[in-house]
Amino acid sequence: MATSNRAETKIPLMTHHDAAPPKMLATHSIIVMSGKGGVGKSTVSANLAVALSLKGYAVGLLDADLTSPSIPRLLSLFGNVECQDNQLMPISYSEKLKVLSTGFLIPSSDRAIVWRGGVKMAAIRQFINETNWGALDFLVVDLPPGTGDEPLSIAQDLRPDGALIVTTPQAVALVSSRKSVDFLRKVGVPVIGIIENMSGYECPTCGTHVDIFQSGGGERSAKELGVPFICRIPLDIAICESGDSGKPIGENGAQASCSAESINTIARNVLHFYGITEDVRTESITKQRGDK
Asked: Which residues pair with 162 in a beta bridge?
């Protein structure tokens, strides 16, 4: 039998110790998932984390899409994760927001991460239990598409108390979103609601509305499945520009577009789900980060 010359990508995670890992102090843990890729799940995760931090909450953002991390690019956040006292140190986006991603552990964004299921699960446990997150009000977890190793590991080890499902209006995405709801019910994670992304496009020049990927499917699925429908996020050039520039659409508190308002609607629904009525915006991200 021929011997393969292929080698798995090696990423310098911590050396595990026999001592019990410290418990992460997160009041609420939220997973953001989708049944298929390309629906904007990571964009929703990043912008939700920023929106909650702008309201004064201490937020952690865990990029659990281990082999295709996009959170660092969406937040224009780069650096090397350090280890102190046998704990990983997440990178600070602002005073209120800490981020951890495998994107901080590889030398180049073009380098592939080739991991089997067992390695993925070990990395997720380490990211959860052996990371110095500090005291968090919310931990937002950006999951990879589907219902495989990473979502199952997060559900079992983190035991999140809420989940958001991102879908697009067309039938192929809606079928996958229904599978996500079924997965969450099987693992006992409450569904905060369904978000319909890429829901229509309004031409900024003539104002014509076009349902490029149809419309309303997310809301219909929510009703059929008996889960809340949160909002529609339209196709918006502002989202594309914010993702490419690494500056979330609502980071300075400006209601610059209907998409920015949609993100704030998601944040308000999250707070309402947990019975939190306060909705007080604090200093802008610019002031939190000390940018000039």
From this structure: 30
**8 Å CB contact between 118 and 153:** no
Task: Look up the CATH number of the domain holding residue 245.
Answer: 3.40.50.300
Whether 184 contacts 163, CB under 8 Å: yes
Please indicate, yes or no, if residue 242 is contained in any of the structural domains.
yes
* 248 within a domain of the structure (yes/no): yes
Q: Is residue 2 part of a domain?
A: no
Q: Measured between alpha carbons, how far is residue 192 from residues 126, 177, 195 in Å?
A: 26, 14, 10
Please tell me the total count of domains within the chain: 1
- Tell me the residue range of the domain where 200 lies: 25-274
- pTM to 2 decimal places: 0.85
Query: 16 in a domain, yes or no?
Result: no
List pLDDT tens digits, range 110-141.
777 888 888 888 889 889 889 999 999 999 99
User: From the CA atom positions of the chain, what is the Rg in Å?
Assistant: 19
> Residues of 108-122 as b/e, b for ≥16 C-beta within 10 angstroms?
eeeeebebeeebbbe
Q: Supply φ then ψ for residue 161, to 5 degrees.
A: -105, 15
Cα 128 to Cα 154: distance, rounded to the nearest angstrom: 9
The rounded distance, in Å, linking the Cα atoms of 88 and 248 is 25
pLDDT per residue over 142-189, tens digit each? 999 888 888 998 998 899 999 999 998 877 767 888 889 999 999 999
Which residues, in sequence order, are CB contacts of 159 under 8 Å at separation 6+? 29
